[in-house]
Amino acid sequence: MAFTEIDHVAIAVRDLEAAIAYYRDTFGAEVEHREFVESDGVEEALLKVADSYIQLLTPTRPDSPLAKALEKRGEGIHHVGYRVDDVAAALEQVKAQGHMVIDAAPRPGSRGTTVAFLHPKTAFGTLIELVQE
């Protein structure tokens, strides 16, 4: 397994519209894609940066993992998404090496991607998302 590039840096925010306005007004960044991800209880706005994204995330329900993270840690970087050619193979390799995962199997992500999350406890405190386009 090898990362092919950084897919996105996810930033947890309480006010998605304010965050979008900040990036637009400060850096000229425009929303390229916006989506509700019901399974995760979030709304996202993706801002294109070269071949990657800044993913602004806000919870859509109080019991979502993101809502809990915001309550515990506040706003800021939530996770980093890395592109891989084959999420299933990458996930199996991570598990075979004894690392903790959040997703036991790949699942649908936003933009029609396939994703899987790795637990931060065995990734030096970083929540990692594997992304296959």
TrEMBL record:
Biological process terms in GO annotation: L-methylmalonyl-CoA metabolic process
Keyword Transmembrane helix annotated: no
Keywords: Metal-binding
Domain VOC: 5-133
GO MF entry, a single one: metal ion binding
Gene3D superfamilies: 2,3-Dihydroxybiphenyl 1,2-Dioxygenase, domain 1
Pfam family, one: Glyoxalase_4
InterPro entries: Glyas_Bleomycin-R_OHBP_Dase (IPR029068), MeMalonyl-CoA_epimerase (IPR017515), MMCE/EMCE_epimerase (IPR051785), VOC_core (IPR037523)
Family: Belongs to the methylmalonyl-CoA epimerase family.
Protein name stated in the entry: Unannotated protein
The species this protein was found in: freshwater metagenome
